[in-house]
């Protein structure tokens, strides 16, 4: 038998021509074959989009080769693997990133040129994969890139939403949400695995059974759906390793209820089956509140159940003893969203694998690690007990049992301190409905709890998880977030990439980002500065063209491009930015004509989505448009000030905006941004930061020095006292004047903006806009001053990039691997 198999393998191998070739002729043949046989167009006539489709299939073939090799290698080596569970991944576009990581971008560009196509034009055809909302989701995507590049044996798991992040359309300055049916044009970057599917159960009852004299619980479900796998290869850079991101889609279950067909209502039976698909249909568009919705809970469990069946199946293929699971499996919980996994592993071990509770618990406590991305206690996820009990009756029992054991243990340690016991309990008894606190469950069962910046960990230890920190100080760690320099410099800023490599004399920084420090040496070099400025200018021209195409506003390239792009939130204080812009406008209006020459021209750019139900955030968007309308049409102001709102902010928009900005704002109230990662993208691209000392900015200050940034505002420890003082704080007359202008209808929509004004005046000023306003203006004035001195500005810009090395996800991931997951690289040989 074995001999036969070997002979067959050799015969087949002989038929294969090794790996796909990357010379121009092979690539061209390949692309044209895909035009004809995949896209089904004539190879003599196809448009840019069809060329993009064929091109991406040709790239996909190459990804698949490496991905197979990597998976086989991992299987053979059987290292400890990391399973990275996240309900959101903001991948953006894949084409450019893939060819760059595979090291064949230029090969493709040349091959296409000879066919009469421009690689960049085709890359623009691709839509974004936007299966996430904001920072957390983009972080997950950056971390996958680093996991692959650093050769870690990792798998990502997520959901394949049919509708990703909503498309933001602006009508009359108001945000409207439109569906993003992103799969409409096909998705060449995924591989459907019809045979990798698992049943997922919901509802029903819990019954008891006796096996070998032992009582067992059996969950008899009321509903079943099928989870089907879609695999997305994630190539590393400068390595053949290509890891897998497996996303689950819900499909009707194969196990049919024959009864309903036999009753004759065939059509209705089919229609009902089809409803299964709604589970993975749409991404929840809110990144801040948990509303205890049944569909969301269903998504979470669907995701968790399918992923764990897959992980346990893979483990059981090679191992027969669960005691060794912690040596082979690390499960990373990205926020609390996948934390039902804890109860699910207990259920599978105890009810299905018949392990004793204590053995199961022992293993569970060794495999989970948890990273929280939240900072406000009120944003922590809670699930109403009734909801959980109806959808997942067995899991509710298990969570109660975990809690009961924990409470017993805790009493032994801390005595009968009832208020502390009730704070630490997984069950929240106070309030109108009983809730399960998913964060407490995650902290109790994880061996490590991570924050996403140093300051975030401080806040976790002293506020959010104070009681737990006192109990288990060793569990708490932090890993400052990062971003991947592959996407945020190499893909999105090719000119800067080439310039850096030229002056460092190597491309090694793309894998070893600390080398960027070498640029410090040339920060004041006139030739280097000249080239640096030219690159930045070209990026600004590209951005200006985009702005004009989007909004019709013509902007001057010589102006300072001042950018704030991120989700719209009160704590991120886009309103502070707007009030500052109005103040600038007001000053220009009231200036002597002769003084206007001294004004540094600005183009203020704001972009970001508001959650559909977040009224205040939507009003901020409208205010931005109302102010822009006034300023941009004021002939007395001209190029001195422009304000533009970039609609439908997403990853590919960021790739265009970040390299083209001079100044970027990260101005959250101190203590509210867990980390922030936008700041890191701008920093890498040599854009200066105007920021509060919040989240990861505190660490950026340490890396590049406060003298190379514009830092302002209250510090974290000052915020509570300032808030308590409320209206007893010193009022700012300038601030009051601007708010009055808005309130009195200077920009129209008087009544509509009233509540926005209330939110920042007197005791209502929860996020301390008024308090920080004066120091904000001072920071802005320093930025103006620095910009006039272009030599100094360029030096600061170079030093920003040079000091950005720490903020690569390569560093973040290496830290997680070592001190949280306990995994080692597993590099596929060539
Ligand atoms: C923080 N999203 C940033 C970033 O660590 C931080 C919440 C609920 C449901 C869906 N999405 C969410 C977040 O909580 C989120 O994006 N948090 C962000 O995580 C990465 O840099 O400060 O706000």
UniProtKB/TrEMBL annotation:
MF GO annotations: glycogen phosphorylase activity; pyridoxal phosphate binding
Top-level taxon of origin: Eukaryota
GO CC entries: cytoplasm
Catalyses which reaction(s): [(1->4)-alpha-D-glucosyl](n) + phosphate = [(1->4)-alpha-D-glucosyl](n-1) + alpha-D-glucose 1-phosphate
GO biological process per UniProt: glycogen catabolic process
E.C. number: 2.4.1.1
Cofactor: pyridoxal 5'-phosphate
Keywords tagged on the record: Allosteric enzyme, Carbohydrate metabolism, Glycosyltransferase, Pyridoxal phosphate, Transferase
Similarity field: Belongs to the glycogen phosphorylase family.
Protein purpose: Allosteric enzyme that catalyzes the rate-limiting step in glycogen catabolism, the phosphorolytic cleavage of glycogen to produce glucose-1-phosphate, and plays a central role in maintaining cellular and organismal glucose homeostasis.
The protein, known as: Alpha-1,4 glucan phosphorylase
Residue span relative to the full protein: 181 to 1010 of 1010
């Amino acid at each position: 038998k074995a001999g036969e198999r070997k002979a067959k393998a050799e015969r087949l191998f002989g038929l294969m021509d090794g790996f796909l070739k990357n010379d121009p002729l092979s690539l061209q043949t390949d692309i044209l074959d895909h035009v004809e046989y995949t896209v089904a167009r004539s190879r003599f006539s196809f448009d840019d989009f069809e060329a993009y489709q064929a091109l991406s299939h040709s790239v996909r073939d190459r990804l698949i080769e490496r991905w197979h090799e990597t998976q086989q290698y991992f299987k053979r080596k059987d290292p400890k693997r990391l399973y990275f569970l996240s309900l959101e991944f903001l991948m953006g576009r894949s084409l450019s990133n893939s060819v760059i990581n595979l090291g064949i971008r230029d090969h493709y560009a040349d091959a296409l040129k000879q066919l009469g196509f421009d690689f960049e034009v085709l890359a623009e055809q691709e839509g974004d994969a936007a299966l996430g909302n904001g920072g957390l989701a983009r972080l997950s995507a950056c971390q996958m890139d680093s996991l692959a590049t650093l050769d870690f044996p990792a798998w990502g798991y997520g959901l394949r939403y049919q509708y990703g992040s909503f498309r933001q359309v602006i009508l009359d300055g108001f945000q409207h949400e439109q569906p993003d049916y992103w799969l409409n044009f096909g998705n060449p970057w995924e591989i459907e695995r019809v045979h990798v599917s698992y049943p997922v159960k919901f509802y029903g009852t819990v019954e008891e059974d006796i096996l070998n004299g032992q009582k067992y619980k059996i969950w008899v479900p009321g509903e079943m759906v099928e989870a089907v796998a879609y695999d997305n290869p994630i190539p590393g850079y400068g390595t053949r390793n290509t890891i897998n991101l497996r996303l689950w889609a819900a499909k009707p279950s194969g196990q049919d209820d024959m009864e309903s067909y036999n009753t004759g209502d065939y059509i209705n039976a089919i229609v009902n089956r089809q409803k299964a698909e709604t589970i993975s249909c749409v991404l929840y568009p809110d990144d801040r509140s948990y509303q205890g919705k049944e569909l969301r809970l269903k998504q979470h469990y669907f995701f968790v159940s399918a992923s764990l069946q897959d992980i346990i199946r893979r483990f059981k293929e090679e191992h027969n003893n669960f005691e060794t699971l912690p040596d082979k499996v690390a499960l990373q919980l990205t926020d609390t969203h996948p934390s039902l996994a804890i109860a699910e592993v207990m259920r599978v071990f105890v009810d299905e694998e018949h392990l004793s509770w204590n053995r199961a618990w022992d293993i569970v406590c060794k495999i989970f690690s948890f990273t929280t991305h939240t900072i406000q206690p009120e944003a922590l996820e809670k699930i109403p007990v009734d909801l959980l009990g109806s959808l997942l009756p067995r899991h509710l029992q298990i969570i109660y049992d975990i809690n009961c054991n924990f409470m017993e243990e805790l009493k032994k340690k801390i005595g009968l301190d009832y208020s502390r016991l009730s704070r630490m309990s997984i069950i929240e008894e106070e309030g109108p409905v009983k809730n399960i606190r998913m964060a407490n469950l995650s902290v109790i069962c994880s061996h490590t709890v991570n924050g996403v910046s140093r300051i975030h960990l401080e806040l976790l230890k002293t506020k959010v998880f104070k009681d737990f920190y006192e109990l288990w100080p060793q569990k708490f760690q932090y890993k400052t977030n990062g971003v991947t320099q592959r996407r945020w410099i190499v893909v999105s800023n090719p000119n800067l990439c080439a310039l850096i490599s030229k002056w460092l004399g190597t491309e090694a920084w793309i894998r070893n980002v600390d080398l960027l420090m070498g640029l410090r040496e040339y920060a004041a070099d006139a030739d280097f500065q000249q080239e640096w400025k030219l690159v930045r200018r070209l990026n600004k021209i590209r951005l200006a063209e985009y702005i004009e195409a989007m909004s019709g506003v013509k902007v001057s390239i010589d102006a300072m491009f001042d950018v704030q792009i991120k989700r719209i939130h009160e704590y991120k204080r886009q309103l502070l930015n707007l009030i500052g812009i109005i103040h600038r406008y007001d000053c220009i209006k009231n200036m002597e004509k002769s003084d206007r020459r001294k004004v540094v021209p600005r183009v203020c750019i704001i972009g970001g989505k508001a959650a559909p139900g977040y009224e205040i955030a939507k009003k901020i968007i409208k205010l931005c448009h109302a102010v822009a309308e006034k300023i941009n049409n004021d002939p007395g102001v001209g190029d001195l000030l422009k304000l533009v709102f970039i609609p439908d902010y997403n990853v590919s928009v960021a790739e265009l905006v970040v390299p083209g900005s001079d100044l970027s704002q990260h101005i959250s109230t101190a203590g509210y941004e867990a980390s922030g990662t936008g700041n890191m993208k701008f920093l890498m691209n040599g854009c200066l930061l105007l920021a509060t000392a919040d989240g990861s900015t505190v660490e950026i200050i340490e890396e590049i020095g406060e003298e190379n940034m514009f830092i302002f505002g209250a510090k974290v420890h000052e915020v509570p006292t300032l808030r308590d003082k409320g209206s007893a704080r010193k009022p700012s007359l300038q601030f009051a004047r601007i708010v009055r202008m808005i309130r009195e209808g200077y920009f129209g929509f008087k009544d509509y903006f009233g509540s926005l004004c209330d939110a920042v005046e007197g005791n209502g000023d929860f996020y301390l806009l008024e308090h920080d306003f004066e120091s904000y203006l001072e920071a802005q004035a320093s930025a103006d001053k620095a910009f006039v001195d272009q030599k100094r500005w360029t030096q600061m810009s170079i030093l920003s990039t040079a000091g950005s090395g720490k903020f690569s996800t390569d560093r973040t991931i290496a830290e997680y691997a070592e001190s949280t997951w306990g995994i080692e690289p597993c590099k596929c040989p060539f």
